[in-house]
Every structure is written in C-alpha cells, then in structure tokens.
Amino acid sequence: ISTLLYTIKFEVMTFTIEVKENILSPSLVHVYPYGASFFKYQCLRYNLLSDFDNDESDDDKEELSESDIKIDIKYIKSLESKDWKEQDHYRVLGIPHLRVKASTKDVKKAYKFMVLKCHPDKSQGSTKVNEEAFTCIQRSYEQLYTLEGKRAYDSVDPQFDDDVPNITEHNKQNFYKIYGPIFERNAQWSMQKNVPRLGSDSDSIDAVNDFYNFWYDFKSWREYSYLDEEERDKAENKDERRYYDKINKQERVRRKKEEVSRIRTLVDNAYACDPRIKAFNEERKRRKQEAKLAKQEAYRLEQEALLLQKEEEERIRREEEEKRLQEEKEKAEAEKKERQKQNKVLKTERKKVREHVKKYNYFCSEEDNVVKAMENLDLLLAGLSLEKMKNLNSICQNKTEFSVLYQNYMTAHLEEQENKKKESLVKAKQSQEMHKDQEINSTEKFSPSDIALLVKAVKIYPPGTVNRWNTIADYLNQHSTVCHSYVNKDIIEKVKKLQSREGDDLKSKVNEQAYENFEKSQKQRIDEVSATGGLSSRDTLNSALNDPLPDGKKKKLPWTAEEQKLLEEGLKKFPQSAGPERWDSIANLVGTRSKKDCMRRYKDLVEQIKAKRAK
C-alpha cells in the first residue's frame, strides 16, 4: 500500500463536529478518512488495481459447475496433436462460452472433468478418446492454465471480432447501438480495470473527454507470441535460437503496431460519429460567437464613447477658438480705432505744422529752394513723432523759436537719411565684392584641362563606387597642374553645372581646347621633323592628321564648335522625311566630316540626352 500512496490524489472530506461544553465555545474538528476500504475505493476510482492487485476477483466470481462444461466429443476426436495450435482450446476443455472470462480455477476444474470423462485408460463411456486426442486436451490445459499462456491465446482468439465500423451516416444515427458493444468488447485488452463506458447523450463534456482521453492513451496487454512461426525449442544451437527470436520479435512488433493502429482508427471513427462531440462543438461555436459579438458590442460602445468624447473635446476647442478669434477681432478693432484716432491726430498736427511752415515761406530766402524745402518737409513729417509735432505747434506763434526747433529737427532728419544711404551703399559694395571674389575663385579653380580630367575621372569612377566624389577629387589633385586643393563639394557642384545647359558651352570649350592642344602637339612634332630636313610644316600637319593608326583606322579628331553648329543646322534643314540622301546632304553641309562621322556624332548626342533624362 505504501508504494502506491504517492500516486493517489486523496480528496479530503471535512466533517463539522459541534462540541458543547459548559465553558468552551463550539469549535470545528477536521476528520480525515483512512483505512483499507477507503484505499481500495481510491484505487478503483483511479484505475490503480490490476489482475495482480485484485486477488478477490476470483473469490467473488461464481464457481463453475460441471453442468456448465459441455464436451464436444466429435470435435475432440477430429483433432490431431501436430495441429494443436490451430485448435480452439476453450472448446476442447468444454468452456467455449467463457473464453477470456474464464479464470485459472475454471480452467483447472474443466480439465479435471475432461480427464475423468475422456481419459483413454480411466474412462469407459462414449466420451473415451484415443491418446492423440487426449494429448490435445493436455495441450489446451497447458496453454490456458498459466496467465501468460492464457493471455497469449486470448490475444489471437479466433472468436474475437476485430472489425472497425466506418464513418457513415447510418453509424452516426445508430452510434450508441453500434459502437457501445465494440468498445465493451475491446475493453478486455485494457491493462487498467474500470474502463469508462461509452455513455449516453446526457453525459457532460468532461465525461466524454475522459472517455476519449482514456482510449487515445489505451494501454493493451494483447501480445502475439502464440503466432510465432519459428519454435526456438527446435533450434540445434544458440545461433539458430537467436535467429528465431529475432524473426519472432519482428513479427510481434509488426502485429502490435497493427493493433495500436486498429484501436486508434476505432477511436477516431467513433469521435467523428459521436453526436455529443458535434453538439459540444456547436455549443462551443455558439459561445465563441456570443463572446465575439459581446466583444464587438463592447468595442462599439467604447468607440462611441471615444467618439462622443472626441466630439465634446472638438466642441470645446471650437468654442475656445471662436472665443479667441472674437477677442483678437475685438482687440484688432480697438487697435484699429486707436490707430485711426492717432492717424487723425497726426494728420491734424502735420497739417498745422505744414501751415505754419508755409506761412513762414518754408524758411527760404529764395524761391528756387522752396520746392526742395517742401520735399524735405514731407519727409520730415513722415518720420516725425506726434510729441515733436506738438512741440512745434505749441511755439508756432514765436517765429524765432519755431524756426530754431524746426531747423534742428530738419538737420537731424537729413543726417539720419544720409547715414542710412551710406550704410546701404557700403553693404551693397561689400556684397558685390564678395560675389565677385566667389566668381573669380570658381572660374580660376577649374581650368579647361582640369575639366577634361574631371570628365575622364567621372567615366573611370562610375556611380556605385565607394566614396566616389572623394576619389575623383583625389584624382584631380594628383593629376592637375593648376590646382591641388579640390574637395568633394567642388567636384559635385562642377558636375551638376556640366550636366546643366550651362555645361554645354564648357564642354565645347573643353573640346576646342583639346583640339588646340592636339594641333599644338602635332605642330611641335612637325617643326621637329622639318628642322631635320623633312617635309614642309603644312604637308606634315595634313599627314599627321590623316596618319592611319597601326590597325589601319584613321585618327578620330574631336568635333569643333563650328562643326557642331553646322551639324545641328543640317539636322534641322534635312529632317527624316528627306529620305536616304539625308546624311549625305548633312555631311556636305558640314564639309569636314564624312557621312559615318555625322551619323556617329548624332548617336552619341542622343545617348547623352537619354542619360541626362534618366538621371
């Protein structure tokens, strides 16, 4: 008992006992169940009793009587001892109705009865059999008397039905009638007692789940040693015995896998046909749908609450905004009125000052200066404050004081205007000089040879090169003869400028410079040749320009700006509708280029334009 205690989950039952005494108050006393009967109850409840543990099973069972033993003498006489494995051992012992339910006591009692009735030496009646038939009776007893032998034969009992019903509509409608007997029949292979029954429609989901969990974890004692084809006792040596054992073991494992697969198929088919599972699934779906709808409703209510809150906040914000705008409007109107009032006062004071100055003939002794004085007066009144104008108007009756104060204000105003004018001129001059210095620096930094190097470097280091612009700047600093302080910013600005329309003129200048450099180099070579007594300089120049390359091709000279201009005029003058003679006409117009050169130049220009658009 102590070895099984740790596997049992005892449910503690608590009883309340009320104790009454004269002094003490009522109290609770906990009583725990224990004893052999309670232990057996828990073992039966949790399937912890096996055939080895339940020794009282044979005692509680009703004993086999001699009248229950039915001797089939005809069948026994037809048997042969060499085919003893194929005989029905329960039929031979006269207990075919018990079969797997027969106990060892029943087998022993049936064998004793058969010995008395069928022994060839002791029996004298019609049930007497020969020695060969009696040997079959002994074989049956030897097979069924031991628990291992009985289980080996019961596992392959030919009377047992191994069929598994398929999933059909008929089986679904008659589920309990069809699957109930099948599960009861297969329950005899269980290693655990108290196998749960199939139940009925009134079972709870927990009971149904316990049933299928038991059968999905079904542990069977069924084994197939009885069907071993090779008898190890017939082996002549240990090697043959090992070989026989290996073959028999493989066959047993195969049959055991088939049995496990059969039980699993039976449970799967029953699960698919069980109406309770369908009802439970529908109920689960219904509850899930209700929960989903409840969640959606809660979400809807929450969104409505958020929307109402948002609308309320929006209303409050709108009211505050309207209130703020109204206050700003009122403030602006008040400021406007105040400004109009001030302007009105300023206008009145200006008018008074102007009348007083006019009365004193603008303080001019000559009429030619009146116009200039009037202009200065307008400028002074435009910048003069209200307080100063009131000061002037307050002493308007005293011409001397009025004249002195007026002249002071006018002098200060003219000096202020002159200072402002000088400051603006200085700033403009500084800005002009700064822009001029930048233009000089930018123009002086990139010479035509450096631009040619830049174009070459851009081709050498295409987009995708790591630190492309820094690499190009280093290349120019290394090969330039003019400037060695280029940075990536200068390179990027110059490339953008070359890619724009302004760069077309720069490119043409570069081409012209390259052509001029080429002519200079060729002329220098010609002068060297002529100095040694060779050809004339003109003939040598023509021969140098038309001198073929080592592979037989002529040297390609860069296009000049004049040739480019003539090519563009020819493209406009002779469009594609001119026919196949178009390029001949363009070449004749250019004069210094062949038809192929003109066509090649046109293709290069088209590719350059496409590349610019792609960028």
Structure characterization notes:
The protein is mainly alpha-helical and 615 residues long. Helix content is 65%, strand content 0%. It is built from 23 helices and no strands. The protein starts with 35 loop residues before the first helix and ends with a helix.
**Helical content class:** 55-70%
Shape: elongated
Quickly give the structural class: mainly alpha
Q: List the helices and strands in order.
A: HHHHHHHHHHHHHHHHHHHHHHH
Unreliable residue runs: 1-21, 50-58, 532-553
How many β-strands, per DSSP? 0
**Rg from alpha-carbon coordinates:** 61 Å
- Taken as a percent bin, the fraction of beta residues is under 5%
Report the average pLDDT across residues.
80
Please report the distance between the alpha carbons of the first and last residues. Answer: 91 Å
Q: Topology of this structure?
A:
Elements (H helix, E strand, L loop, with lengths): L35 H10 L11 H4 L12 H5 L11 H4 L11 H15 L12 H15 L1 H9 L13 H5 L1 H12 L18 H12 L21 H36 L1 H85 L10 H14 L2 H9 L4 H47 L2 H13 L7 H12 L8 H12 L2 H30 L5 H9 L15 H13 L8 H9 L4 H20 L1
Brief rundown of the structure:
The protein has helices at 36-45, 57-60, 73-77, 89-92, 104-118, 131-145, 147-155, 169-173, 175-186, 205-216, 238-273, 275-359, 370-383, 386-394, 399-445, 448-460, 468-479, 488-499, 502-531, 537-545, 561-573, 582-590, 595-614.
